Amino acid sequence: MNDMLQVHTPASIAPLELDGLGFTHRGQPLLSDLSLRLDGCRRTLVLGPNGAGKSLLMRLAHGLLPPTHGRVRWQGEVPRQAMVFQRPVLLKRSALANLTYALAVHGTPRLRRRTLARQALERFGLGALAHRPARVLSGGEQQRLALARAWLLEPRMLFLDEPTSALDPAAIKAVEDAVTDFHWRGTRILMSTHDLHQARRLADEVIFLCGGRLLEHSPAERFFTAPATPQAAAFLRGELVW
Ligand SMILES: Nc1ncnc2c1ncn2[C@@H]1O[C@H](COP(=O)(O)OP(=O)(O)OP(=O)(O)O)[C@@H](O)[C@H]1O
């Protein structure tokens, strides 16, 4: 790890409160009256059927979308945040240039950028691909590049919206290892997934959405062994829930 990337103490991340959060589009409520609090340095996995509002929740919480109801409130200093999407948004430049550009925007001195970017590429197993155009990389490589970019920005809060849904097992493992490394570095994680096994592997706690409503927010062990709602119980049994 390079000298500019510091290890943070989890206690120093401001809690995030979602207070009566809602999003209505053309009169249709897509997410309704959602209140919860995220604190500490937990890995919170967002689960729910298609269209439940998982991506919407992530975008609202990250501030990419203004809510139509309620608010997103940081109880303290707003932390540095990053988001990783299902399909990475990469610039039409080399893998290395994608990272040096992100560092430039971040305000890293020019002389440090290349070294840091190189280290991050190595860290995510992309060293040999530094000069390849980012957009011709495979899906798994692109996702690792997106994670390397997020890593360089040292987020205290990382949002991941179904980051492994289009990947094969080896690429999924790389993403899950990265999520674990972010966690150990002191980053709070909010991540949506369709993959129950993945949620079991990674979650400290679970948010379960269904039909645009928050049905559960509980410690992972409790959610998986004794879900509180029939919808979550059915979802865990693999039944069709919507
Ligand atoms: N910006 C937006 N404007 C209007 N409607 C939206 C917007 N974003 C999402 N929606 C709608 O909100 C609903 C919930 O979408 P969302 O993508 O959050 O679901 P999801 O739980 O992530 O589903 P999936 O598992 O299929 O990805 C969908 O009907 C979607 O079309």
TrEMBL record:
Coiled coil: none annotated. It is found in: Cell inner membrane. Pfam families: ABC_tran. InterPro entries: AAA+_ATPase (IPR003593), ABC_transporter-like_ATP-bd (IPR003439), ABC_transporter-like_CS (IPR017871), MetN_ABC_transporter-like (IPR050086), P-loop_NTPase (IPR027417). GO terms for molecular function: ATP binding; ATP hydrolysis activity. It comes from the Bacteria. This is Tungstate transport system ATP-binding protein. It comes from Halomonas cerina.
